[in-house]
Amino acid sequence: MASQGLRASPEGIRAAKTALTDKTWSQHKLAAALGITRQPVSKFFAGESVSRSCFVQICQQLGLSWQKVAGLPEDLVFEQSGKGRFKDADLDTLVKEVRQKRQEKIQYQCNIIQMLDIPQTVKLIDIYTSINVLEEINNLQWREIDDWLKDFKSESNFNQLRTYKRERKLTGLEAVLQHSKLTILGKPGSGKTIFLKYLAIECNKGQFQPNQIPVFIRAKEFAEDAKNDSKFNLFDYISEEFLSCDVEKELTKTLLTHGKLLILLDGLDEVSIEEIEKLTIEIRSFTQIFYKNRFIISCRIAAHKYRFHGFTEVEVADFDQEQVEVFAKKWFVAVASKYKEDGQARGNLFINQLNLQENQHIRELSFTPLLLHWICLVFQGKNEFPLNQAKLYEQALNILFYKWDEVRGIKRDRIASNLTLAIKKKVISQIAAINFDTENYFLSKEKILELIADYLQKLQLQLDNEAVLKAIEVEHGLLIERSQEIYSFSHLIFQKYFTARNNVENSQAQNWEYLVSHMTEKRWREVFLLTVNMLPNADEILQLMKQKIDLLVANDERLQYFLTWLHQKSSSVYTRHKAAAIRAFYLVCVERSLHHSHRALIYISGYNLEYALVGNIAFDSDLALDEFLYSTIACFNDVEFAFERNLKDALDYAHAFAIAFNEAIELVSTSKLKQALQKLKTQLPDLDSNLERFREWWQTKGKVWGKQLRYFLIKYRNIGYDWEFNEQQKELLQKYYDVNKLLVDCLNSAADVSPTARQKIENTLLLAIADIEKLHNSNVS
């Protein structure tokens, strides 16, 4: 039996007209907001009979009680067709019965997921990692660039600024429990879909919202089906879903009317422009009619335009370190291994490798779940990360540019047929390079639009600049709006990648000169490595880098003299290793002996340069001996500093000095040097018996003892000189080491370097200008 219509009472009509005036709406605008024709609205205000559903929609849109407007008791509910009202006990039984009938369908829809580039399916519960959400939406907050810069101390903490420091996080489950109507926003690949599917599975099992029945709807599929059927009707869509599980339409309406459904609508951003308006009108209408139900809608944050009445909006936060580890460990068990123990071991190896300092650039990407999955996939092949960084980022960007949408069958609306992916990449490269050069990591919308306009004008493309920015933001998630009209790259490494890409696309002599001028700036390191990695041939820029490095210390006579000694000492060592690697080894030894451990400003923590040249050379006996002798000098400096400052850990430094000196003596094979060092050892008081006595001896005889040690090291090993560098020279020597390390890393990273250029650079590495000229002249002759 069809439901009877309702009429507004005279008092109800007056209240409705007042509400309409307060909203500054016309009857026509009210009809448009509801997605219905003008006729039922006119009849409503004329006091004529209107269908129950339209009557309730109109009242809810105006913020009025439909029962009061109709002059009916407040507790009146819809009658059930032919079945009367349901009691609470009957409803609970109905929920259990329907959920049981729907259980298999929900499992089919949500429990099995197809992961990017993984041929087999994976159970969602085996990979699911809980998410956090932000209660404040970043791009709705008013914050200036200065507000972000206050917390931006260095590049290393860029990724800690993924959200504003004062924003409060909730777990996803907490947010869902607190709000019956929720819009979940997030960047591409942030885990929105998996979270909604997880809720459906948990509700299906009765472990989450046990008094409700889950309905998972992919917005794209609903819109496509609705377009084919020429009707956008969520009630019919859900009814047909339930009917396929042997649930009658009348019972579906009963459940909806009493708020017994958990409706999960996923991927609003995936719906085409032609259909999105119709869909949002239908969602707005449906959620107002069946307002008692629990609704969760997901959408990419950059595509979010529509706000629904009564919905709270939250933003998915990036993974933190703990979530990265949980996901990775689950991933290697669920995806990469047949046996749990093997998967756990590989997961632990992955985490250990990811947390290494040299993999900081990869770790930066891991806070996005989609990219973390891909990083795990890359790692599993060889149990290590690839050395080719440019290829690594290119593949990650391909996922964001098209692959993630492609595998899910999503075609984004293009703002123009001539805005190709290649052009978008060039636009992004321009934005990245110009702002990285000026050390701008946070960009105003006005500045970005200006850069887009300039570049499109060069290409003679007539496009809407805002639409181009929105396409880059929505489709690829490379630029994110951190607060209102303040943008940054989603990952700093992507800004560096596109800066390097811009260098390669504009490779000219003057550009190389400009790039090389930034060699001593640490923030440019990845840009250099990526640039040489992308160049078809890197000879020109590498040779230019070498020339500039040599000129860095060319005018300092003391450092030139030091480099001459470095060459002489290294040449006296008989070894199978490259001469440049031996020079690097002794450069590090000297640097470490110059400074005590409390001075970290100019201190090299390891033998990175010679390791980059040939790997580990510590097994050579001569080098091992000299390393311990230099360590003795370094420890001597530490003890002297500790006693001068009366430090509490002076005893620890004294013990370290004694250990280094004893091990050095053990390694000495030359009898005269061994005798000399043993004689020096007898002059040292017993450290363990009386520290104060050792301190007194050090203060009165320590400096003389140290000079004797240096005398014997110079005489027998040609090491141990007190170079008496001033602070400026020490800093310059550190800078010289750093840029040489960069040059060697570029040599190792370059996709193509000619053998001639490589040999020339390596042969003259860490040489004084005079020695370089000698070598050049001998080669010419």
Instruction: Please compute the radius of gyration using only Cα atoms.
Output: 35 Å
| Cross-sheet strand order for the largest sheet | 4-3-9-5-8-7-6
Average of the residue pLDDT scores: 84
Look at the helices and sheets and give the structural class.
alpha/beta
CATH architecture of the largest domain: 3-Layer(aba) Sandwich
- Euclidean distance between termini CA atoms: 108 Å
What is the number of helices? 36
The gross shape turns out to be elongated
Number of domains: 5
According to CATH, the homologous superfamily of the largest domain is P-loop containing nucleotide triphosphate hydrolases
Overview of this structure, please?
It holds the Pfam family NACHT. InterPro entries: Lambda_DNA-bd_dom_sf (IPR010982), NACHT_NTPase (IPR007111), NCH2 (IPR054501), P-loop_NTPase (IPR027417). This is NACHT domain-containing NTPase. The protein has 781 residues and is an alpha/beta fold. The chain folds into five domains: 61 residues, lambda repressor-like DNA-binding domains (434 Repressor (Amino-terminal Domain), Orthogonal Bundle); 229 residues, P-loop containing nucleotide triphosphate hydrolases (Rossmann fold); 65 residues, no CATH class; 98 residues, Arc Repressor Mutant, subunit A, CATH 1.10.10.10; 180 residues, no CATH class. Helix content is 59%, strand content 7%. It is built from 36 helices and twelve strands. The strands form three sheets. The chain has a seven-stranded mixed β-sheet with strand order 4-3-9-5-8-7-6. Strands 10-12-11 form a three-stranded antiparallel β-sheet. Helix 21 packs across helix 22, helix 27 crosses helix 28 and helix 28 packs parallel to helix 30. It is elongated, with a radius of gyration of 35 Å. The N and C termini lie far apart (108 Å). About 3% of the residues have low confidence.
